User: Fold this.
Amino acid sequence: MSSLEEKINEAKDLSIQIVKDTDDDRLMTLSVGPQHPGSGHFRFVIKLDGDYIVYADPDPGYVHRGHEKMCEYRNYFQNIPHLERPVIHDSCNITYSYSLAVEDLIGITVPRRGQFIRAIASELNRLVYTLYWLAIYGIFLGHSTMFMWPAGDRELLIDLLERLTGHRVTHAFNIPGGVRNDMPINFKEKCLTQVNYFEKRLKEYEHIFYNNPLMRQRTEGVGILSKEDAIKLGVTGSVLRASGVPYDIRKVEPYDVYDEIDFNVQYMKTGDSFARAYVPLLDMRESCHIIRQLLDRTPESGDVREKLLSNVKGSPGESFKRIESGRGALSYHIVSDGTSRPYRVKISVGSFRNLLALPFLLVGSKLGDMPPIYWSLNYWPVEADR
Amino acid sequence: MISSTTKLNAKQNSIRISHNVLNSLVEKFSNNVKIIYDKHNRAKIMINSEHMVETAIFLRDNHGFDHVESAGGTDYPKDNEIELNYHLGSYSNPDLYPYVLILSTKINRNDPKTNSLINIFPSVEYHERETYEMLGVYFIGHPRNERFLLPEDWADIPPLRKEFRIKGR
Amino acid sequence: MGSITPDFRFGNFVGSIIQLVLVILALVTLLILPIIFFTLFFIPLPVIDGQVLTPYLFFSMVVDPARTLPIVQFLMHTDLFRAAVFPGFAFAALIAALTIYVERKLLAKMQLRVGPLYAGKIEGIFQLLADGLKLIAKEIIVPSGADKPIFWLAPIMFISTSAAVVSLIPVASGWVVADVNVGLIAAFAIFGFFPLITLLFSWASNSKYPFIGGLRALHQMIAFEIPFFLSALPVVILSGSLNLSDIARSQNLFWYIFVMPINAFVFYISSLAELERIPFDLPEAESEIVAGWLTETSGMIFGLIQLGSYLKLYALCGLFVVLFLGGWYGPQIFPPELIPGASASNIPLLKIFALDGLYNPITVNSIFWFTTKTFVIILLMLITRGINPRIRIDILLHTGWYKLIVLTFINLFIVLILIYSGILGPGGVISSK
Assistant:
């Protein structure tokens, strides 16, 4: 048996270069910092040689609140409100995964009507998040109309969610055991009308925003992530699907009622910024189909929640569950020691995994390409910091 | 709409894949590998930290695990050890799409050092860096064992250790 | 807002108002009237009804209506009126203010929202006034290490250069502030100043983001100056003069845009780039470099630069109209007399309202058509803002240095062919000479 160093050397996989810092005085260091209209609550340092970026280093942690540590001090129900803060408008997804893992530990199943309502809320949240992402993409490209139209349409969907859950954002809707309350009486018809209207709007978006020659010029061929690199970097979500891997957790490992729904996984093969911007639009269309099927199949009556004690004890062991959120695979690894508080909660979010692609894609590109590349990676800074 | 026979097939498939992977591991590494549990689409194996790199190379080359879904650690002060977990997944082998293999090892809490898997799975770079700053585990071979998410002026013990108490609780 | 302050007494209030009135009266009598008298003694006054108008008679014009109109007419033809009021600074500033308001409302309607709504009773019409007052009241922050003389002077240079361009644009026949024989070249020369001012200001700001923005502005403006000049070249060839008023007058038969549509298009694109409007607003690219070279401006400096930008917009659209759209020519829609039969009547009030010496139907018609055409071009520039994202610097430079110059040459050859074949130009089939 060869020594450890030799084994490591044999397996060295150097096709992904780790970006090295340079000390050249000629380069200009820019801190695209947390207080910047072009970066959200996230800081990355880039070094410029004229107009070209030679070094990029992300520095997250501006909004790190320590959710994983806080989970160990609260019981399974008390964890829901603070766990949905990483993504406030996609909160039904980030608590969905947590609820699935906790239900696995406790050993219960959610009643059928509850499962359907969970799925409807999750898809609506996916629409709301992707619209917000599209709006900010417009700002990054300098297109103010591309900000206003999705933000306006998003308001109508948020009204729907307010009807369903009581909050516009941070819904606190998914809890271990099911959902907090039942659908209101007219919700089905209103949801159907809204989703049909929204699908027509998606056609207009494609026409006006995605067929704009200037937008195409700025995003096509920019920041190309090949399929092999995407797999090695371990990216997830729409970034992965834009590089040619048809991987969607709702299809490969269906959770709850997703194995009864008929939909396609949308993917593109080019892997540039335009593909990464186009795949979410296709995803939104699929979500509309999914919502219609879910609304059809929801059982008319039934429990939506499996009543549990508020300080329910989880059986000793661990559980790893993942779902597909707006950014990619969101997984929870919960270790329980038999008490009513989890022993360890490890959250793995799509944004954190996609962050690895940022320095890899930025090096060698122009400064003007920085906004399209950065935001097309579907990176939500607050979620990556947890 | 997936019928119940398809669901049954999927379940049998996953059992077959799981047995395939685990049996090959046991065959190659005999008593260095311990299977902790084998559930539907999830399996956990425990290895000594010296054999981590070989096992990772074996899994990557023979079965097609190519990325890490999540990587972190858990602190067990009672046993005086830290358990590291790597959740491996596969994007290139469609049979293994739904399967997640949890590769874990236990290291001594007083001298937490282990070999980094970064040269085998490049996607662990940021996860290992976060584990370094949150649990204090040093990864040999990782180019940047540095502070990542915590503020620049952090002067306390690694926060995910159990002796770190949140103030006021 | 709320109730009256506790120690309000009505007697004190009346007393303070009377005090204010007395102070104003004293000021006017002791200070302002003597100043007016002194200055009027030194201005050459016109001859009215066979006698030179003295300052005392000047003040009596409010009593005698027959003297009002000649005085107003005299004032309108002085140079000060032309430079300050019409067609100079006040007119341009008014159009600039209207442009800003229309831009905000139009963009809002395109983006499914409402725009300014609350300032002023009707649809937020006083929004600009409110913004101007706010900007005047804000603190001007000068960054540490900034080059103070240049930092304070550059905005003033910016707005005076914009005003200089405005002074060259003829609004009607004979109504131009500076009637220079090389008007077109003077306009282009003054435009060459703007990159310099931008670069100086961004350098004086002593910060990285303005620095990048200033360099981008420099690249952008210089890249588009050549297509700018070249697209106006056939106009000069066809009209035979560089004087802007003559160029406008030579379009009385047909507008030049019918002969050179490509050049008009190139001029339009180059003006969008010179004005730093979307899609060419790289120097102020918000998402990449915070606010570009405008990052360190605050308060009135920002206000002056914005006013200068919109004055430039009016000047460039005016230039477009003069060069390509026939200046002030249009069908005569104003009647020969405002109130028919008034000038021959005996009632003095009617005579005043007829605006006898003041109302020239041809001039008013010219002003109307010029303003309308300028507004149409301004609207075109505003609509482009709502549709497009921002362009990238290398695509911009490629467009400016390669594509646009080639297009202007194509049109130049077309015009030369038309001239040499005897259709256009002096002595041609369709010509005014």
User: Anything to note?
Assistant: The first strand of chain B starts at residue 34 and ends at 39. The CA atoms of residues 87 and 109 of chain B lie 21 Å apart. Helices of chain B lie at 4-29, 52-63, 125-135.
